[in-house]
């Protein structure tokens, strides 16, 4: 029994943000009906394929029912209204105003079902001067403040890199999932039981991660600058080169751990140095500490250095690539990496849902993989909606 079993959601999403939101909810047991255009979600064309089927979509569409509809057609709109009439919530990530223009705006859908909660995800939000501008995840990173921070100091000739995944879309999807469940919980505890309209955007989702930077700026005018792999407020914490060309992240920033780290690398005099007695002092002399640690890591392969640091109980990790993740014994023991049978692809590895629920294994939460576009048309339209065949 998963906690969201019985919650009914319609997804009018495409690409990443809304589908990521509903994937989380589906992993937790919600019934998610994904409405795709007749040619399928354009995300099916991204990434690698096997026998013509998207490998990425195996995860992107898992635990969801897939139906295909033309939202601009009379039949498509009738069926969307019918789906929303039986649902608790609908999630969409079209540009603001699109659903209203084709006759499927919130007023229309909530007229069919006043209890319907509608989560709307867009680039800049449903109002404001930028509402009509197009946006993808990279724009959320740029405007939300994250891309400014990913630069490497002293390398102004290179553009600050993206983090490597569509973090803006994923964040907006996570926030949408939280807001949707909260709105449904609140709806069921109010006398009128009316659904709410939720407005989430990529820029605000990234901006919400900027820690104390806004109050710092408001009070002092300070603008946090890129710090590379270091943390300006904790030292020594950085990423260091190893003899085999790999990188090792080391976090030795508590007083006790710092002393253990210095003993391991043979620099006890630094742990006894009054300048290094506190974290504040170590931050002032972080470059000296980083040089000492790097001089040690450069003499060892990453795995060997990591093993020695772990024996000394110093927090550390190699920078994992996907092969490291897929084959790590901890990932496998916790079911974080799941071998899953996909009818379209054969055995494929899935990232497990990031939740741990007592009484349910991660494997049990992945009930099925992403289906072919429209695979559930018959079941949804005829069995769930009761249409005549």
Automatic annotation (TrEMBL):
Keywords: Transferase. It is an enzyme of class 2 (transferase). Gene3D superfamilies: Crotonobetainyl-coa:carnitine coa-transferase, domain 1, formyl-coa transferase, domain 3. It holds the Pfam family CoA_transf_3. GO terms for molecular function: transferase activity. The keyword Transferase applies. Its EC number is 2.8.3.-. The keyword Transferase applies. InterPro entries: CoA-transferase_III, CoA-Trfase_fam_III, CoA-Trfase_III_dom3_sf, CoA-Trfase_III_dom_1_sf. This is CoA transferase. It comes from Sediminicoccus rosea.
